[in-house]
């Protein structure tokens, strides 16, 4: 096979391993591993120069070039880590390469390799013993399974130590590879060839080479966390590819670039790259709808969202030899959920045109982009699902990895849906099981799965990431024992500790770490795990010394312990050290920002949360905390913008909506705060915390908006400024300009749209939120020679604005009705409602809410003995007195005609107005009731409050109310 000879001629990465094997332990520090890796890269580079290997172009695949060697090596590496596990026959076939780079070669016993190919699937007895010993050596009880004198165990232990040695050489920025990585030596050889330079400054592979990008990205995927060094190297490759002329950018390369950008959370750039790939491919995508059903038993047709997609390029003929992953519980297997909506359950599934394999990968990328750019919500998942349904319904077979990615994304989307949760779990189990040769036909070969030209076009995870996802699902379903077994296989220490807590096996994690330390005593990660399991700082400081202060994990663990102990100064110190080593891990920045915020170091906290949002723009809590920092610094507008990003990424957290509401109130964002308060009430119900000051500010802003004193949003403010600019120039906007066209009919047609009214308000003509008095309007018209048509248009705009105000008043009235219903014993709520209703419906409506406020005040324990509560009651009675005297004056002015109409508002279901004699009797009865309430308060508080100023104020209030009773009787009797 092309490239094998070049691979076999490369230096082996096992050179010098004997110096670091002491007995059955590995003695290798990170500094020594870094030096060995550099030495190996130099050795490979010198070898390639000596062989006369020429510089490779982007598409150079000559038999004697470096690209075929890279292609074969990556195929072999992917076969072990991304698409399955090599069968015994394949290990024998490629045994020379595996042995050269430290891989495991399974011997087939006395009968040779032919016995494996002939096939009964039975292993030789010593092979079974070797396999069980290898699994035991990688697990928790490795050294105690077989006798130490067993030659099979000694061989397996040697292989395991070789893997540990080679994995250590792959460490970057202190981030070590995952413990279950296979063929690390082969990946080292791939990286050495990808980074080699024929002469200084002249790389063997150009930055635009896809193989350079693939090698570096595979290295990143094998590490436990993101590495800044690899990120910078990949960034150079991505920039070089995107700088190429458009005709040289292939669809496959654009997809790979987009996946790299998405992995590092540059989702805006990834979206642009995926869309470029779609345009380059000619794929046509249409999201549409149809009337139909989604299940076998559904009787009534409903509107169903579907995706139509067609390829411009011809679809290659289907291969009869390509393997397909097993689809669990599909429609053809009898599942009652249809693969794709259709008109009736009995109707034949609509035929769709086959898609090109690259177009299928594009659809998967676009589906992932929907998740990246939308909040985690049921609607988002439904939107993504239509892409998966289109791919599942496609008649053309998909490449193996494309089909696996399709099934994996469907399982992820269905994991939270009760109807198909079982199918999701079984599908994920099937995808995990296909990796293990022990769980499938041992004669089944997997190397062919990596032959597809579209292998790198999808973001299918490596085996350990898929196993972690499976374990996470088990953990969520309370299958803690199963989850723990998987976590132990991949040595996910944080999850192991959590599972041990759930199972009350806290010592198990410690014993596992100690057993592994016996074999690898210089591994800093094992000491970190031991320190986290025992919560002992000494183990973490030992890890810090072992890594030569070049690994962030010990500092992260020390910072987490300090955070639990609330030693925030130490948290900042330790996380500062961690992010200096590896600055691309968002979790460190988040905890650093939180600790700095607790210490009131606002500048440092703001920097940290800014980095969180840069690394992962979808981190809603990062945006929320950044807004909190800005709010404390009184940067209100940036804080409001940050909170808008937070709720964009998490629309189900009522605390974020409440924060958005508070900041918006200070900025006088009337329509935004009304919407935010409504949504927060929908989510939180009685959990929401409504502060009196914020609610009073909200009411004041609403009244000012309804009066026309302030605009509804900042957009209106800009329009207002533009209007004043027009007036100062003595001109008005051109009526023929589409931006100023009257929209009264549009809004009238949508009057029943409910929550969509704010969007319609944006259609109000420029400057329509500025109310002119009739005289001022006439003067302005005369000044510019306004025609009769222009006057009619201006009147129409005024009517539109009045309608907007009326609808907003109705919405706020309904909103307060909900609030009052939820908080029946909070006097502050009634106080704010009374202030609003006084403006909307008059003083008698306000008085009714004040009566409820008084009852809520007097329900407080010790209200007549505690000064603050008593003062609050007096404040309420004073407001009641003011409402009554205003209503009395209004009744006198109106006489028998009744009270005047409420200002600026006409509700869809307005409160019944009290008029004529009924109004008079209401005022008289109100005075009497208020006087009785004051007298009762004076009697109840006399013993404890007689010496306080509030009591004297109440006595004066009683005198005024008594006079009001007398005046009302004289006026109305």
What does this structure look like?
- The protein has 973 residues and is mainly alpha-helical.
- The protein has 5 domains: 4-109 and 125-244, no CATH class; 263-459, no CATH class; 478-549, no CATH class; 734-823, no CATH class; 836-973, no CATH class.
- It is 62% helix and 4% strand.
- It contains 42 helices and 7 strands.
- Helix 3 runs antiparallel to helix 9 (184-195), helix 25 packs antiparallel against helix 26 and helix 31 (670-684) runs parallel beside helix 37.
- The protein starts with a helix and ends with a helix.
- Mean pLDDT is 83; it is low at 107-149, 716-784 and 896-909.
- Residues 112-143 are annotated as: Disordered.
- Residues 121-134 have a biased composition (Basic and acidic residues).
- This is Tetratricopeptide repeat.
Q: How does the SSE layout of this entry go?
A:
Elements: H1 4-9, E1 21-22, E2 25-26, H2 30-51, H3 66-81, H4 88-93, H5 95-100, H6 112-118, H7 125-138, H8 151-169, H9 184-195, E3 197-199, E4 202-203, H10 210-221, H11 228-243, H12 251-263, H13 267-281, E5 284-295, E6 302-310, E7 337-342, H14 357-372, H15 378-392, H16 400-414, H17 421-433, H18 463-476, H19 480-490, H20 493-502, H21 506-519, H22 524-534, H23 537-546, H24 553-564, H25 568-581, H26 586-598, H27 602-615, H28 620-632, H29 636-649, H30 654-666, H31 670-684, H32 692-707, H33 714-728, H34 744-749, H35 757-761, H36 774-784, H37 788-822, H38 827-841, H39 843-858, H40 867-894, H41 916-945, H42 949-972
Antiparallel strand pairs: 1-2, 3-4, 5-6, 5-7
Organism: Novymonas esmeraldas
Region (Disordered): 112-143
TPR repeats: 552-585
């Amino acid at each position: 096979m092309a490239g094998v000879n070049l691979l076999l001629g490369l230096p082996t990465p096992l050179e010098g391993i004997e110096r670091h094997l002491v007995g059955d332990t590995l003695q290798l520090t990170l500094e020594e591993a870094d030096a060995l890796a550099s030495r190996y890269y130099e050795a490979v580079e010198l070898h390639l120069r000596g062989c006369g290997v020429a510089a490779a172009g982007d598409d150079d695949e000559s038999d004697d070039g470096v690209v075929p060697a890279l292609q074969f090596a990556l195929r072999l590496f992917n076969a072990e880590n991304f698409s399955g596990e090599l069968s015994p026959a394949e290990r024998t076939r490629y045994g020379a390469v595996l042995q050269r780079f430290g891989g495991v070669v399974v011997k087939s016993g006395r009968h040779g390799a032919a016995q494996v190919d002939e096939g009964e699937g039975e292993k030789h007895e010593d092979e079974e013993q070797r396999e069980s010993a290898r699994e035991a050596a990688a697990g928790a009880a490795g050294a105690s399974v077989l006798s130490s004198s067993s030659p099979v165990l000694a061989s397996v232990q040697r292989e395991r130590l070789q893997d540990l040695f080679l994995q250590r050489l792959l460490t970057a920025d202190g981030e070590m590879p995952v413990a279950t990585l296979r063929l690390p030596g082969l990946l080292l050889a791939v990286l050495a060839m990808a980074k080699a330079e024929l002469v200084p400054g002249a790389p063997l592979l150009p930055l635009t080479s896809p193989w350079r990008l693939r090698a570096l990205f595979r290295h990143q995927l094998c590490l436990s966390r993101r590495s800044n060094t690899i990120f910078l190297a990949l960034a150079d490759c991505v920039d070089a590819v995107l700088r190429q002329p458009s005709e040289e950018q292939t669809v496959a390369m654009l997809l790979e670039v987009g996946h790299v950008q998405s992995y590092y959370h540059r989702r805006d750039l990834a979206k642009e790259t995926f869309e470029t790939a779609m345009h380059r491919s000619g794929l046509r995508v249409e999201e549409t709808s149809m009337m139909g059903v989604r299940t076998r038993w559904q009787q009534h047709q409903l509107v169903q969202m579907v995706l139509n997609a067609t390829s411009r390029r011809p679809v290659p003929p289907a291969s009869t030899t390509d393997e397909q992953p097993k689809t669990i519980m599909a429609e053809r297997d009898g599942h009652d959920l249809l693969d794709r909506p259709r008109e009736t359950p009995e109707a034949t599934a609509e035929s769709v045109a086959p898609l090109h394999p690259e177009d299928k990968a594009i659809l998967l990328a676009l589906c992932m982009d929907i998740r990246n750019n939308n909040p985690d919500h049921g609607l988002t998942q439904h939107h993504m699902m239509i892409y998966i349904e289109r791919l599942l319904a496609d008649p053309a077979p998909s490449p193996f990895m494309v089909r696996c990615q399709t099934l994996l994304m469907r399982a992820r989307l269905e994991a939270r849906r009760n109807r198909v949760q079982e199918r999701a779990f079984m599908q994920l189990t099937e995808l995990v099981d296909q990796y293990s040769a022990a769980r499938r036909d041992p004669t089944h070969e997997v190397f062919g799965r990596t032959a597809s030209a579209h292998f790198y076009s999808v973001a299918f995870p490596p085996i350990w990431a898929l196993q972690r996802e499976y374990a996470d699902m088990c953990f969520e379903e309370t299958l803690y024992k199963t989850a723990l077994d998987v976590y132990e296989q991949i040595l996910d220490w944080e999850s192991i500790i959590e599972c041990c807590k759930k199972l009350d096996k806290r010592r198990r994690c410690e014993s596992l770490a100690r057993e592994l330390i016996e074999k690898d005593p210089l591994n800093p990660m094992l000491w970190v795990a031991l320190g986290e399991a025992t919560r002992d700082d000494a183990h973490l400081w030992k890890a810090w010394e072992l890594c030569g202060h070049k690994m962030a994990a010990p500092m992260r663990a020390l910072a987490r312990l300090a955070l639990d102990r609330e030693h925030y100064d130490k948290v900042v110190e330790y996380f500062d050290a961690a992010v200096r080593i590896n600055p691309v891990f968002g979790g460190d920045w988040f905890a650093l920002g939180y600790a700095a915020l607790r210490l009131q170091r606002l500048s440092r906290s703001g920097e940290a949360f800014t980095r969180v949002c840069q690394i992962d723009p979808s981190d809603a809590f990062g945006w929320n905390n950044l807004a909190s920092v800005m709010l404390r610094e009184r940067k209100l507008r940036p804080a409001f913008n940050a909170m808008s990003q937070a709720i964009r990424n998490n629309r189900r957290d009522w605390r974020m909506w409440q924060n958005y509401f508070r900041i918006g109130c200070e900025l006088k964002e009337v329509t935004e705060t009304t919407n935010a308060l409504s949504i927060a009430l929908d989510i939180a119900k009685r959990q929401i915390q409504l502060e009196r000051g914020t609610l009073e500010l909200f009411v004041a802003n609403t009244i000012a908006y309804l009066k026309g004193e302030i605009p509804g949003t900042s957009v209106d403010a800009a329009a207002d400024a533009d209007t004043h600019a027009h007036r100062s120039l003595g001109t008005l906007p051109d009526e023929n300009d589409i931006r100023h066209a009257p929209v009264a009919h549009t809004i009238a047609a949508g009057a029943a749209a409910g929550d969509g009214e704010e969007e319609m308000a944006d259609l109000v003509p420029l400057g329509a939120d500025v109310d002119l008095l009739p005289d001022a309007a006439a003067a302005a018209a005369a000044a510019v020679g306004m025609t009769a048509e222009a006057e009619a248009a201006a009147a129409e705009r005024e009517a539109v604005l009045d309608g907007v105000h009326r609808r907003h008043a109705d919405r706020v009235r309904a909103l307060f009705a909900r609030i009052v219903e939820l908080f029946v014993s909070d006097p502050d709520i009634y106080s704010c409602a009374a202030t609003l209703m006084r403006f909307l419906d008059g003083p008698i409506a306000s008085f009714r809410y004040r009566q409820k406020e008084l009852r809520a005040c007097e329900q407080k324990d010790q209200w007549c003995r505690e000064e603050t509560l008593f003062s609050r009651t007096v404040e309420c009675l004073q407001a009641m007195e003011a409402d009554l005297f205003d209503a009395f004056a209004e009744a006198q002015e109106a006489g028998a005609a009744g009270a005047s109409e409420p200002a600026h508002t006409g509700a869809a279901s307005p409160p019944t107005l009290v008029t004529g004699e009924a109004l008079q009797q209401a005022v008289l009865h109100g005075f009497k009731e208020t006087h009785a309430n004051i007298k009762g308060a004076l009697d109840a508080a006399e013993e404890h409050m007689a010496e306080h100023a509030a009591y004297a104020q109440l006595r004066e209030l009683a005198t005024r109310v008594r006079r009001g009773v007398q005046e009302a009787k004289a006026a109305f009797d």
